[in-house]
Amino acid sequence: MREIGYGDQSINKKMKDYINLFHSMVSEIHFWNDLEKTKKIEKLSLFLHDFDKIEKFVDYFEDFNINLSKKNLNSFLKGVSKS
């Protein structure tokens, strides 16, 4: 945040704004798998103003979700040290 110009006093306020935004996004997409594509586009449009490729973004998340669901937890842990 310092790289984009925020000073010590404004970092806490901005972090609060970012955390609130994150929680509102999670709240809106909580039931993502149950939504139709048009509803998904509407949900993302709430947060991505002036973004003209929301439909492609939704398709990307759909593909990502499908790929994640095909893998088990062990496939993500292979790089973790075995002790």
Short structural description:
This protein has helices at 8-28, 37-45, 54-69, 73-77. By secondary structure, it is an all-alpha fold.
Annotate the secondary structure layout:
Layout: H1 8-28, H2 37-45, H3 54-69, H4 73-77
Report on this model:
- The N and C termini lie far apart (36 Å).
- The longest helix has 21 residues, at 8-28.
- This protein has two domains: 1-30, no CATH class; 32-76, no CATH class.
- The protein is 61% helix and 0% strand.
- It is built from four helices and no strands.
- The chain is an all-alpha fold.
Helix content class: 55-70%
End-to-end gap: 36 Å
How many helices?
A: 4
Structural class: mainly alpha
Number of beta strands: 0
**What Rg, in angstroms, do the CA atoms define?**
17 Å
How many structural domains does the protein architecture include? Answer: 2
Low-confidence stretches: none
| N-to-C SSE string, H for helix and E for strand | HHHH
Categorize the overall geometry.
extended
Proportion of strand residues = under 5%
Overall pLDDT: 83
Please outline the major beta sheet. Answer: none
